[in-house]
Amino acid sequence: MTYVIALPCVDAYDVVIIGAGPAGLSAALNLTRARMRVLVVDSDRPRHAATMVSHGFLTRDGVPPHELRRLAREEVERYPETRVLRRSSVASVEHTPDAASSAHPFVTSVVGRTPALSGAVTSRAVLVASGLRETLPDVPGIRGFYGMSLFSCVACDGYEMGDRALALIGETDDLCARALLVAQWTTTLTVFTNGAVGLDAAEEVLLAERGIRVERRRIDDLEGERGLIRAVRLVGGERLPITGGFVRPLWHPIVEFLDSLNPGTDKAGHLVTDRDGRTSIPGLYAAGDVTAPGPQQLIVAAGAGARAASTMTHDLLGAAIR
User: Fold this and answer.
1) Is Protein biosynthesis included in the keywords of this UniProt record (predicted)?
2) Which of 82, 143, 225, 309 lies in disulfide reach of 30, CB 3.0 to 4.6 Å?
3) Which domains does the chain have, with CATH numbers?
4) What pLDDT, in 10s, does the model give residues 47-71?
């Protein structure tokens, strides 16, 4: 059971960070080292929880994502200036009634696992690094293979899928571009639209010219065992042998707690920022996958968090970045 303690606020920080993935923890480390007092709110529900191994992170290639999170949290928590609230979520971020004149104009309401870890805090600034929720294609059994032989990040897992018979499963209108990317790692690729429109006729011709098959029939089931996919079975019974592949989820930025502030977003709901992480609301920053789409790699998110931390430090000190 969780509890929410009503205002008035019970604590004050320089920065509240929402999310403890690579972006949030990287920002926390750098802000702490700038002698800022930081609170990190961590739901402990990372989007990559199903992923067994991560790739592309220099010095940590092949390390499980949960191990990266553990190491990063330990590093951050060594500093007394930073507090990490685990298994907690943010109910809302609002301006305080006297925000225009207050040194701590933001109030963040936190829902924790105990009364002692719930309540409201004020801060000088807020960094949103809450990431995304995923909705996988509507395919029976897909969860049983996700993160083990079916992945969403081609840059992260394409190398290990090299030269296999691969599937790209999705129901969105960007499958053509994704298929051309996946084809960098294999010459045997089938795009499954699962009955959705997905591709137009011209795109299908383009893919065919590259040796990429398009299968528009609905998927009846995925076959395999222990997370290893072996075939895609179509409605009607035909089986296509597959030994790995990629899915195109729908991604939903986790920003509902910002409703009262109403920051600028793109048409997909991602927070719009400048190159340094500033949103349309002064004092509100964002980093990682919650911002406009880009490479969804851990190292990219960590870099974005570090950059946002540098920007916040300069802004809070009133020192312009050159």
Assistant:
1) no
2) 309
3) 11-133+251-317 (3.50.50.60), 137-248 (3.50.50.60)
4) 655 567 777 787 778 788 888 888 9
